[in-house]
Amino acid sequence: MQLDTLNLNYWAIAPELIVSLVAVVLMLMDAFSRKGGRQANAFVALIGLIAAFVAVVRLGGLAAGGYFGGMVVIDPTRLFFAAIILIVAILAVLLAGQFLGDEGLPPGEFFSLLLFATSGMLLLTAAGDLVTVFLGLEIASITTYILAGYRRYDVRANESSLKYFLLGSFSTAFMLYGMALTYGATGTTNIEGIRQAIASESINFPALLLLGAAMMLVGFGFKIASAPFHLWTPDVYEGAPTLVTGFMGTGPKVAVFAAFIRVFIGGFDVPIAGVGLQLHNGWIHAVAVISVITMTVGNIVAISQKNIKRLLAYSSIAHAGYALVGFVTGDFAPVAFYLLAYSIVSVGAFGVIQLLARAGDQKTMIDDYAGIGFEAPALTFPLAIFLLSLAGIPSTAGFIGKFYVFKSAWVTTPSLRYLVVAAVINSIISIYYYLYPIVVIFFRPLAPGFVRPRMQKATALAIILTIIGTFYLGLLPNRLLKSMEKGQPARITANQPGTK
Amino acid sequence: MKDYLPILIVFIFVLGFAVTNIVLSHVIGRRKDTRAKLMPYECGMDPVGSAHQRFSVKFYLVAMLFILFDIEAIFLLPWAVVFRSLITTLSRSFVFIEMMAFIAVLFVGYVYVWKKGLFEWTRG
């Protein structure tokens, strides 16, 4: 074992290091200060996340390839997904100040947990090995279990946290078993090593590999809340504090999508002959079916929802389905762009609902918002924009995201065009339930007892940023799309150490 | 089989140690039996009655902390054992600093739980 062959380079994990160190600092700040200062905590967290963002951008200057013995990789997939996660985390921190103040919750641990979760998600995007995938997944999951129950004395939050924890652990067991079987079949946990083992047809037991891949598909399916494994989502999203819902409906999901892409497109997608072809056909079709079921279930059930958080939970299920369409292209770019568009809008929407719902989530029924359209325009107009973007109305980010995914899938895989047809039909269905809250908010008589929420500066900044993001991605997406296409990875080259 | 001899010796030693201690304390020790002392030992719980009883959440915290610092030993011991052979190929400071970083992380956790008052059993 030589250091040179391991290719240790601490710059390659700089974003993860920065975020986790800042999280530790926040933890200690909380332990040593008498009464935690919300502002100070949020400020430190924000500085840390921005520094991590800079570090992610600077990762592009390092050679693509594997580091730390292939445990961590640098490639465009990682850079884009890490950037999305950090954007989500920054928005969450901006919104958190007011959330914690309104709810009267202790601030220290919140920011610390948020940053630990972020570090886990970043690690998940960087994973070049199944072990790192698992590690990142657990860091991200365990912290979000706690965040879901952050309103300690609220029964619904406790229920949400416990449900999330139990079902999450259950899915983790699936994932781990799948990893073990894959390791048994290929003799390696390195994703690139797995690909090479399949390509050279040196698989010990082909059935083990197929079973392992299937179990990992279940594990990933749970975490991204895709259809047969989505049942936890509405309850957990409804019970968790709204801001946390916005965070965990986007951040962990984006990170798991990155690992999903790494493992399945990077490792299991070797359509050459024998097992490789069998595996490729197997998972592509499984993902296609899951995708169709996911968007259909999400959209159909969302129609009958009366609670705005549940509505958005089902909408997020449907969006996971749309994003899965991008998998058949064998490229990360459509999925990444779609998730970026979805995340910005989704965090924005939950941020607005956090304010409208008031402390303790008292008002989360859609009817509670009747007629408030012109009473609190600073909140309702952004919310309307976000809902329209989720529906995929042109000139918003959601439209370009959907267009990009559907078009890529249509062009690259003619045999799976039914997927695109299903997705378009679903998008049309979804317009109904996205417009319903808008109709209630703007065209119904004012509901009694409406108190206009106060908005703090940081919250306003976050909402403005999400609106700018929505329109920027919707109107001027070319620059980002070009840089994504330029960064097309041929394959992950995890075993070839990058040159310094 | 010769390789397993040390294990057998350890086994005999452990058995002897335990038996000697019990026998010695039985023979030498002064005895003052009370009702509670004569009950079967059940980690401080009442051995008779329903097993479904509530007990303080602190037990969980203690168990969790115990596991955390137990894991530290699990990593430290092999590290100490292979340290000499590791530094033949890796640089000495690298091997040392890696483990110190690990301990530093655990130490931060220790400081945190201390400041949070987890070691003050009697308080609320």
Written description of the protein model:
- The complex is a heterodimer of chains A (500) and B (124).
- With 500 residues, chain A is mostly helical.
- Chain A has one domain (3-486).
- Chain A is built from 20 helices and two strands.
- Chain A has helices spanning 3-6, 14-32, 38-59, 76-103, 108-126, 130-148, 155-186, 191-199, 206-223, 232-239, 242-248, 251-267, 274-303, 308-325, 333-357, 377-391, 397-412, 417-443, 457-475, 478-486; strands at 65-67, 72-74.
- Chain A has a two-stranded antiparallel ribbon with strand order 1-2.
- In chain A, helix 2 runs antiparallel to helix 5 (108-126), helix 4 runs parallel beside helix 15 and helix 10 (232-239) packs across helix 14 (308-325).
- Chain A is globular and about 70 Å long.
- Chain B contains four helices and no strands.
- By secondary structure, chain B is an all-alpha fold.
- Helices cover 65% and strands 0% of the residues of chain B.
- Chain B has a domain at 55-124.
- The longest helix of chain B has 29 residues, at 58-86.
- In chain B, helix 3 packs antiparallel against helix 4.
- Chains A and B meet through helix 2 of A and helix 4 of B.
Task: Please describe the topology of this protein.
The complex is a heterodimer of chains A (about 500) and B (about 120).
Chain A: H1 3-6, H2 14-32, H3 38-59, E1 65-67, E2 72-74, H4 76-103, H5 108-126, H6 130-148, H7 155-186, H8 191-199, H9 206-223, H10 232-239, H11 242-248, H12 251-267, H13 274-303, H14 308-325, H15 333-357, H16 377-391, H17 397-412, H18 417-443, H19 457-475, H20 478-486
Helix pairs in contact in A: 2-3, 2-5, 3-4, 3-5, 4-5, 4-11, 4-12, 4-15, 4-19, 5-6, 5-12, 6-7, 6-12, 7-9, 7-10, 8-12, 9-12, 9-13, 10-11, 10-14, 11-15, 12-15, 13-14, 13-18, 14-15, 14-18, 15-16, 15-17, 15-19, 16-18, 16-19, 17-18, 17-19
Chain B: H1 5-28, H2 35-38, H3 58-86, H4 92-115
Helix pairs in contact in B: 3-4
